[in-house]
């Protein structure tokens, strides 16, 4: 099987350096960015402006190595965790996922809010958040992750994944 992915856009954010940037969208809730879509994909943005939030699927283009065990930023115990139980960028395929607020769509430029993504990041896909599909009802579990909402908002990256 051969898997071919195309970069459809580039994410432009205020974060030009990996150090000290938010590690989750919650920590960047007031940060704005734009997504510059290639003109060949602009038609696909039709009707996107009717949604409040988007899933961004992107490529961690600055990851230099992959690990199967990591100590995540929000693990207060500094315990090595299996990479698939984390949201670190060190996954074997270096694919990122963020939920962001949609601000506007103008031509091939999409403005978003709540962005924890490095400037110049290649966007692979975008999908609308649809509450009737995506909202989880009932009890949920967050595994080892015990950080409070405030802890997550204040957490910034260090050199651990650079």
Written account of the structure:
The chain is mainly beta and 162 residues long. It has one domain: Beta Barrel (Elongation Factor Tu (Ef-tu), domain 3), CATH 2.40.30. 6% of the residues lie in helices and 28% in strands. It contains two helices and eight strands. The strands form two sheets. The chain has a six-stranded antiparallel barrel. The chain has a two-stranded antiparallel sheet with strand order 4-5. Strand 6 and strand 7 form a beta hairpin. The longest helix has 6 residues. The radius of gyration is 16 Å and the shape is globular. The two termini are 31 Å apart.
Radius of gyration: 16 Å
Which strands sit side by side, in order, in the main sheet? 1-2-7-6-3-8
Low-confidence stretches: none
Structural class: mainly beta
Number of domains: 1
Q: What is the CATH topology assignment?
A: Elongation Factor Tu (Ef-tu), domain 3
Q: What is the assigned CATH homologous superfamily?
A: YaeB-like
Please outline the major beta sheet.
6 strands, antiparallel, barrel
H/E element string?
EEEEEEEEHH
Distance between the ends: 31 Å
The CATH class turns out to be Mainly Beta
Shape designation: globular
Number of strands: 8
CATH architecture, please?
Beta Barrel
Total number of helices:
2
The fraction of residues in strands falls at: 25-35%
Helical coverage, percent range: under 10%
The averaged pLDDT comes out at: 86
């Amino acid at each position: 099987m051969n898997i071919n992915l195309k970069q459809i856009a580039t994410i432009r954010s205020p974060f030009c350096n990996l150090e000290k940037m938010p590690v989750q969208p919650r920590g960047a809730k007031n940060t704005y960015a734009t997504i510059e879509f290639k003109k060949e994909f602009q038609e696909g943005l039709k009707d996107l402006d009717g949604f409040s939030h988007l899933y961004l699927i992107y490529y961690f283009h600055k990851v230099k190595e992959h690990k199967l065990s990591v100590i995540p930023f929000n693990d207060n115990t500094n315990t090595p965790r299996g990479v698939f139980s984390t949201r670190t960028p060190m996954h074997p395929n270096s694919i990122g996922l963020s939920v962001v607020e949609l601000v506007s769509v103008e031509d091939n430029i999409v403005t978003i809010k709540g962005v924890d993504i490095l400037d110049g990041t290649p966007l692979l896909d975008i999908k609308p958040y649809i509450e009737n599909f995506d909202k989880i009802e009932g009890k949920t579990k967050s595994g080892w992750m015990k950080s409070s909402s405030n802890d997550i908002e204040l957490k910034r990256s260090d050199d651990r994944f650079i």
